[in-house]
Amino acid sequence: MASKLEALEQWVNQAAALTRPARIHWCDGSDAEYQALVQQMLADGTLIELNQQTHPGCYLHRSHPTDVARVEHLTLVCHPNREDAGPNNHWMDPAEAHAKIDALFDGCMEGRTMYVIPYCMGPIDSPLARCGVEITDSPYVVANMRIMTRMGAAAQARIEREGTFVKGLHSIGELDPERRWIMHFPAEFSIKSYGSGYGGNALLGKKCHALRIASNQARTEGWLAEHMLIVGIENPRGETHYVAAAFPSACGKTNLSMLIPPEGYRRDGWKVWTIGDDICWMHPGADGRLYAINPEAGFFGVAPGTSDATNHNAMRSISHDTIFTNVAVTADNQPWWEGLPGAPVTDWQGRPYDPANGPAAHPNSRFTVSAKQCPTWSETAEAAQGVPISAIVFGGRRPSLLPLVMEARDWSHGVLMGAAMGSETTAAATGAVGVLRRDSMAMKPFCGYHYGDYFAHWLSFDRPGAKLPKVFHVNWFRKGADGKFLWPGFGDNLRVLEWMIDRAEGRASGAETPIGILPDEGELKLDGLRLERARLEELLEVDNASWQAELSAIGDYLASFAPRLPERLRREQQRVVQA
Ligand code: GDP
Ligand code: PGA
Ligand code: MN
Ligand code: MN
To answer: What is the value of pTM for the model shown?
Structure first.
């Protein structure tokens, strides 16, 4: 039996024998290493310096124009048994998958440097954290991994102590969409990714490890790996409640995690604390509550729409030491995207800006920034035991039907609300935008196993002694007849979070409806908000006929997971139909 360190070295040697790099660099995660990589990328054009007076330490990366988002059709979950991947995943036989991708990896790093990146997902001393090692030939990936994870010597020391780590092999290859695969081997604890440098495809600690591989591990070990932000809401009495919320990509997680309270709330002393903006690992604690950590150390945020008006905390975070990908630039070389004041002169592809070519910034352009740069970053994000969760929130982009907020009557109903989630597709994945699709728990692209088993796993947390959070569903995106959003959103979402916390604390009674509990008359605090009464009524309207159609569609969708659909979830759907 090889020693723990030898296991790591053996795997690195194997990868080197396959990809044949000119040299191997073990990343220590130091500042000097980061700066040297930046200089090298500035020299070869991978990074472009932005205005260092206004944006010190900020750089722009322009990706290959066909490599701008996650590629769900090329993302595979290779369980030995096809059924375990479920209808929610693309599957290939593991042996066939290895053969296919190893043929691409063969000699792909010739003349290039191979970087070995040990990383830890979660606080380095947390028992809830898990480690991995990514091998890549992309310095851009190394720089981003340094921001997004606890990367380097400390992670390597933990790996050498524990011996277990997720093995991730990555190459940008030729950046050819025809030679691109993102493959997961849950049984082997490994990931192979070829042909893309885009965040969700290439920063393997993020979606590949912390969601697809971790969801499998969480299932066997009795915890949850979720596509959720974590936010702390401190009321004027100084009590903080933590909320975890699952919205699909580009549906408001980053914004909600760092929201700025409306004027009146600020005056009264409300504060918001950011713990995480994309991924949440939740474990049942000894007291029966769920405790959450953010496995990440940075934000990989959507740039368009981010402004001082919508997300001032993000704007302050990204004013220095940030990597921008596929944004436009202004005449004085500042980063620019739709939603910001000022004007672009160069678009995301480096061409002179011409509105005939579409938006100046790519709709899925991103910023990568250390979470510590966020003014509302909370120390509790470093807590080894995590933070206790008071409410779980599901939501998506639903132009109609779904009310602003509703509460599940119990855990089973909450799991149904999550499973039934639907949302319009966004630019975060390649393909059509604005198409309504089911996206259970916002995990459609990320659940690394059969959704039927996943729903059963969620239901299993309801057991004697459990003190589970209340479950809610929100919709910030309902539109009126004029085609405009009915709800102002952003900071005003705190009004909805306050109602949830009031419900969790027994301070609001709510109003029962067939689909769940909605705020009772006057329970949503709307002081200082200019919202016509008719629009509020529309936001909270429950149309029975349309709901019957929706419930029947939900029934059909759930049936697609038979025979692994838990009977309890099917019965729950029946109960709501008859309510
Ligand atoms: P994430 O990908 O889930 O983290 O989503 P983001 O927070 O980055 O938001 C994605 C897009 O939705 C951005 O363009 C935001 O400006 C927009 N957005 C976020 N929150 C709201 C909201 O409450 N209301 C509206 N109308 N748009 C929002
Ligand atoms: P997002 O993260 O959820 O912030 O968009 C990236 C992604 O899901 O691709
Ligand atoms: Mn995401
Ligand atoms: Mn985000």
So the answer is: 0.98
